[in-house]
Specification:
Blueprint (H helix, E strand, L loop, with lengths): L1 E2 L13 E2 L2 E9 L3 E8 L4 E8 L7 H16 L8 E7 L2 E7 L3 E3 H5 L7 H20 L2 E2 L8 E4 L4 E3 L6 E2 L19 H4 L6 H17 L9 H10 L12 H10 L11 H47 L4 H15 L1 H5 L12 H33 L2 H7 L10 H13 L2
Parallel strand pairs: 1-6
Antiparallel strand pairs: 2-3, 3-4, 4-5, 5-7, 6-7, 8-10, 9-12, 10-11
Helix pairs in contact: 3-5, 3-8, 7-8, 8-9, 8-11, 11-13
The structure holds adenosine-5'-diphosphate (ADP) and magnesium ion (MG).
Length: 417
């Protein structure tokens, strides 16, 4: 603990120093305090310092809680939990010194391309579960899991912040029934002021996961009483297929059960199910990718058939036309084309891209097959003995055209695309 001489820190001004730390800038403000970027000049390390609000200064319990946060976080060493370096008091204001994170709060990160897609989101959810499980293993309940307490670093590592209201699970404070936290992500038992355990954090985490998928929390409302009522008694509005695949919806539904007994009992259990969902999606992705590749190969085969038929007809430009069709296909689906080269280094196609390609490939395949069928029947017709055609009567006007001319005309028609 750092003992600091009386440096004045008024709540709304940015102090120059906090303890032995030189303040660089203010980076955030929350319900319990303000956060500054600062430098530990003794070792030249950049840090983040959370300073407790002035008006809480005289509240022993909140103050005590603040120090408890520091101690608890100091005990936890895990990539998904923010690291605490130090804590102390400056000008009567308790502060906590932690690693300065570079990246984005979860809301900001979700708006970046890196977070697009349900796979990326499940990856973040799994990291949150891991960090929480470690805290729970230490007997610590976070009690305030919400989007602003989840931070994503540049390398994609998610960190749980702000064990500011966390208390030791066995603590006498737990039994006080004090209402803490953000109502929108609160568990029903917490909203009702009842005792909470790890399953309460699990519920809040699932509420944040829902928000990640839906863009709004499961109990969102502009009115506080309505939020509380929804938390306690309303099922969350169902997520759509586009927001989350069915297996993921099932997992979240269980995690958001009103009764703790009906939820996953530990974050590792939720983590395991999320992992299973992700594996299932991977499997589904591979099946769609394979289907796209199969259709692509089919189209190539039809083009080659056309080439053979064109050649046997002696159609001028048959090869060139088929080459062009292949080139068009390659340009339109470069990733699929790359998969046709033996031994090539392949990038994954991706579910969304593969599904989109699939539709377009099916249409192209139909066109090619129709073109080939037309060419075939025209060939059969052209090759029929002349007398037979004459006997048919209807085609006699064609008699002047040579087989070759008619095939060439047909060829132009079917390759016009
Ligand atoms: N260690 C940190 N490194 C970088 N930014 C942080 C750190 N801790 C907190 N912040 C930022 O400061 C903001 C305010 O934090 P906080 O006081 O916990 O308020 P709240 O969580 O209620 O928004 C957070 O949203 C976060 O973006
Ligand atoms: Mg916070």
């Amino acid at each position: 603990m750092t003992a600091a001489p009386g440096v004045t820190t008024t709540p709304d001004e940015t102090p120059q120093h906090i303890g032995r730390y030189r303040v660089v800038e203010s980076i955030g403000k929350g319900a319990m305090g303000r956060v500054f970027a600062a430098v530990d000049e003794a070792i030249g390390r950049r840090v983040a310092i959370k300073v407790m609000m002035g008006d809480l200064e005289d509240e022993t319990e909140v103050r005590e809680r603040f120090y408890r946060e520091a101690k608890i976080m100091g005990q936890l060493s895990h990539p998904n939990v923010v690291t605490v370096f130090d804590f102390g008091e400056s000008g009567g204001h308790p502060f906590i010194v932690m690693e300065l994170l570079e990246g984005l709060a979860l809301a900001g990160y979700l708006a970046t391309p890196a977070a697009a897609g349900v796979d990326a989101k499940i990856g973040l959810m799994m990291q949150a579960c891991e960090g929480l499980q470690v805290a729970h293993n230490h007997g610590v309940i976070h009690r305030d899991i919400k989007p602003s307490n989840l931070f994503v670093q540049r390398d994609g590592t998610l960190k749980i912040l702000d064990f500011g209201v966390a208390r030791l699970a066995q603590s006498h404070l737990t039994r006080a029934g004090f209402l803490l936290g953000t109502p929108e992500y609160m568990s029903p038992e917490q909203a009702q002021g009842r005792p909470v355990d790890a399953r309460s954090d699990l519920f809040s985490a699932a509420a944040v996961f829902y928000w990640m998928l839906a863009g709004q929390g499961p109990f969102a409302s502009p009115e506080l009483p309505k939020i509380l009522r929804a938390v306690v008694s309303d099922p969350p509005p169902p997520l759509t297929d586009a927001q989350a695949p069915e297996p993921l919806r099932r997992v979240l539904k269980k995690a958001l059960a009103k009764s703790p007994a009906e939820r996953h009992q530990q974050c590792v259990d939720l983590l395991a199910e999320l992992e299973q969902v992700r594996r299932g999606l991977d499997g589904a992705t591979r099946r769609i990718e394979q289907a796209a590749l199969d259709w692509y190969k089919q189209i190539l085969a039809v083009i080659e058939e056309r080439r053979v038929l064109g050649r046997s007809f002696g159609v001028t430009g048959a090869d060139a036309s088929c080459d062009e069709a292949v080139a068009r296909l390659t340009a339109r689906f470069p990733v699929l084309a790359a998969h046709m080269t033996p031994g090539a280094l392949l990038e994954p196609i991706g579910r969304v891209a593969a599904a989109a390609a699939l539709e377009s490939l099916k249409r192209r395949h139909n066109t090619e097959v129709a073109a080939l069928a037309a060419l075939r029947s025209e060939a059969a017709e052209a090759l029929r003995p002349q007398e037979e055609r004459a006997a048919g009567g209807a085609e006699s006007s064609d008699q002047g055209a040579s087989v070759r001319d008619r095939a060439a005309a047909l060829w132009r028609r079917v390759t016009k695309d």
